[in-house]
Design goal:
Chain B: Pfam families: UQ_con. The structure holds 2 protein chains of 2 kinds. Chain A is α+β, with helices and mostly antiparallel strands. Chain A is built from 3 helices and 4 strands. The model of chain A has no long low-confidence stretch (mean pLDDT 95). The radius of gyration of chain B is 16 Å and the shape is globular. Classes of the chains: A alpha+beta, B alpha+beta. Chains A and B meet through helix 1 of A and strand 2 of B.
Chain lengths: 138, 148
Amino acid sequence: MAKVPRNFRLLEELEKGEKGIGDGSCSYGLEDSDDILMSNWNGTIIGPGHTVHENRIYSLKIYCGEKYPDRPPTIQFISHVNLPFVSQSDGTVDPNKLPVLSSWNRNSSIETVLVEIRREMASFTNRKLPQPPEGSTF
Amino acid sequence: MSLPKRIIKETERLVADPAPGISASPHEDNLRYFDVTIQGPDGSPFQNGVFKLELFLPEEYPMAPPKVRFLTKIYHPNIDKLGRICLDILKDKWSPALQIRTVLLSIQALLSSPNPDDPLAADVAKHYKEDEAGARQVSKEWTEKYAT
């Protein structure tokens, strides 16, 4: 198979993100619409229903480095959230504690990361974790 | 990973017999991915500029068109802020009879004849339609600033 280079891969992801993905519970876009290197992205996750996260809107920063998608993006929560893989000092997601990042492969994408994080929010151990006040930020 | 003969042939010719004002060379680690430069055509506001682009031949090539994008900032109604190009042969007018060379020549021609009636950068197209001289001046300034 042809190996899609970083920039063309990110252009595909951008176009997909602009059209809107799935049911709209996760979304993402470029932080700066004329960032020709497409490194910095914003993401949003709407907390899954029937959990402590229900109706909360979480903002994240996503950074795709030069080696993306051979290497995973780095993820940082802007919105304050209590999850075992999120640093409570600055919101950084620990890639070793999130399988989609620790066992990263080229088929994964910004979308799959957001969807996986949302799935984690609804997991048995995370769905009832006490949360900081809604709307607070790191 | 084996490369289709057609791509090998095209690459050989691009390197051995490049079109005037155009260069294209494949990445060593991905022979479907090319670094491209296009010189701004004489008589256009892009004259004396050297524009960097990147080109990728997807798995389906030549049944699907190459993907091409400007890496150098350019003030042109058919090229957006991310360097994406609005050109019919890169979309619905693609034919497998076209080649990398013809695509790059078409992009060079697009620099000489902007088409503000089929815009990708709406603000630039509006500028070109309402004040062509002023818009060309901005294109020239951007060329001097970014494409040298």
